[in-house]
């Protein structure tokens, strides 16, 4: 149960990084020579790529889907913890 919760929280953290990078790229898209921000591991790095707004919008939607997928995992892990505590108590 702890690993499921940890995995879900890691997924939410990753989706936040994805959302931050995409929204930052969109906000800087009209700046000349602005570099795109991408996720590398657990951190953000600048790339030499130009910023494509439609690509960034897709990344934002993907981040939202990743986050939405993690919520049922957290709810299920929480229910399992409650059941386990009820059995022990």
Query: What's the total number of strands?
Result: 2
Portion in helices = 55-70%
Average of the residue pLDDT scores: 88
Q: Give the termini separation.
A: 18 Å
State the shape.
Answer: elongated
Given as residue ranges, the uncertain stretches (5+ residues, pLDDT < 50) are none
Query: Would you tell me the structural class of the helices and strands?
Result: mainly alpha
With strands numbered from the N-terminus, the spatial order across the biggest sheet is 1-2
How are the SSEs ordered, and which strands pair?
Elements: H1 2-27, E1 37-40, E2 43-46, H2 53-88
Antiparallel strand pairs: 1-2
Helix pairs in contact: 1-2
Written description of the protein model:
The protein is mainly α. It has one domain. Helices cover 70% and strands 9% of the residues. The protein is built from 2 helices and 2 strands. The chain has helices at residues 2-27, 53-88; strands at 37-40, 43-46. Strands 1-2 form a two-stranded antiparallel ribbon. A hairpin with a 2-residue loop joins strand 1 and strand 2. The longest helix has 36 residues, at 53-88. The model has no long low-confidence stretch (mean pLDDT 88).
